[in-house]
Specification:
- The chain is an alpha/beta fold.
- The chain has a domain of 196 residues: P-loop containing nucleotide triphosphate hydrolases (Rossmann fold), CATH 3.40.50.300.
- Helices cover 40% and strands 13% of the residues.
- The strands form 3 sheets. The protein has a 5-stranded parallel beta sheet with strand order 2-3-1-4-10, sandwiched between helices.
- Helix 3 packs across helix 5.
- The chain is globular.
- The structure holds zinc ion (ZN).
- The site of zinc ion (ZN) has 6 residues, from loops.
């Protein structure tokens, strides 16, 4: 019952708390908000006070996407552009592990046993990170790799407001090609990708072009493939991700906050389109960040 009450709680107001609304949210590219979750700022007040004055704060966005889709790349580019921290939960875990923080021993045990880090630990690391940022005068964030479950999404909703969830998408066969094309130089550690993707658009669907990232000649003979980059393992990874992410996508879709973005290709093709979809294409720093 408690969970149900929480689920039926009206979502927070969206438009009143951010300085601009991504263009795509006002057009047909985003699904209609579920009428069960009214977004009026005048409905039941949020039981928790906002973390800071919403008028002063920067964007609070979440990036979702399959492994290999490039959400880290786009998330960190946008964080540079908007001057907000890019917070990846994987980095938080690694950082805690390398520190002598209170959770590091517990974490080391979990990771060494190959177990999943619990929601509680992730939430605790994230709150700590957000509080530290706030103390330094940081405002806003782009979350990468979080929330991964409905439960995490619900907890996050109780802690702070999420303005927008960007779901980056590529067709599965493109993700597969990209993962199978990954190569690492055994000498210098450089990362490359030999996959060359050029899919012609048909039936009204746009094509996808992604240039390979080829190694320089002195690395070419020393390339290695990660042992878990096999077709079966990559497919399983994508399958597990899809199963896990669909309820989270639905959670935000029902609140009118999910922006679906089909990547049209690699960074040169996708970056300008993404900025357009986010209504950032006339952002003053766009030029320097794209360079
Ligand atoms: Zn090399």
């Amino acid at each position: 019952m408690a969970a149900l009450t929480r689920l039926l709680k009206p979502s927070h107001s969206f438009s009143s708390h951010i300085s601009y609304i991504p263009r795509s949210l006002s057009t047909a590219s985003i699904e209609e908000a579920d009428p069960r979750f009214p977004s009026s700022p005048f409905s039941t007040p949020n039981p928790l006070p906002p973390r800071s004055d919403p008028k002063d704060r920067n964007v609070q966005w979440v990036f979702l996407g399959s492994p290999g889709v490039g959400k880290g790349t786009y998330g960190s580019r946008l964080s540079n552009l908007l001057g907000v921290p890019h917070i990846a939960t994987g980095d938080l875990v690694r950082h805690e592990l390398s520190s002598s923080g209170p959770l590091s021993l517990q974490l080391a045990e979990i990771v060494n046993q190959g177990k999943l880090v619990s929601d509680e630990i992730i939430i605790s690391l994230l709150s700590k990170r957000l509080e530290a940022g706030e103390a330094k005068g940081e405002s806003g964030f782009i979350l990468d790799g979080f929330p991964r479950t409905i439960r995490q999404a619900e907890i996050l909703e109780g802690v702070t407001e999420i303005d927008l969830v960007v779901n980056l998408k590529l067709p599965e066969y493109v993700l597969l090609e990209k993962c199978l094309g990954r190569r690492t130089c055994s000498q210098c550690g450089g990362n490359f990708n030999v996959a060359s993707i050029n899919i012609k658009g048909e039936n009204g669907n746009p094509g996808i072009i992604m240039a390979p990232l080829l190694p320089p000649p002195h690395c070419a003979s020393k390339l290695t493939i990660r042992s878990d980059d096999t077709e079966a393992v990559v497919k399983e990874r994508l399958h597990v991700y899809n199963e896990m992410s669909q309820p989270v996508e639905e959670f935000y879709r029902s609140r009118g906050k999910l922006l679906e973005f089909d990547l049209p290709g690699g960074i040169p093709e996708s970056w300008p389109k993404l900025l357009q979809a986010l209504n950032l294409d006339d952002h003053e720093d766009t030029q320097s960040a794209a360079a």
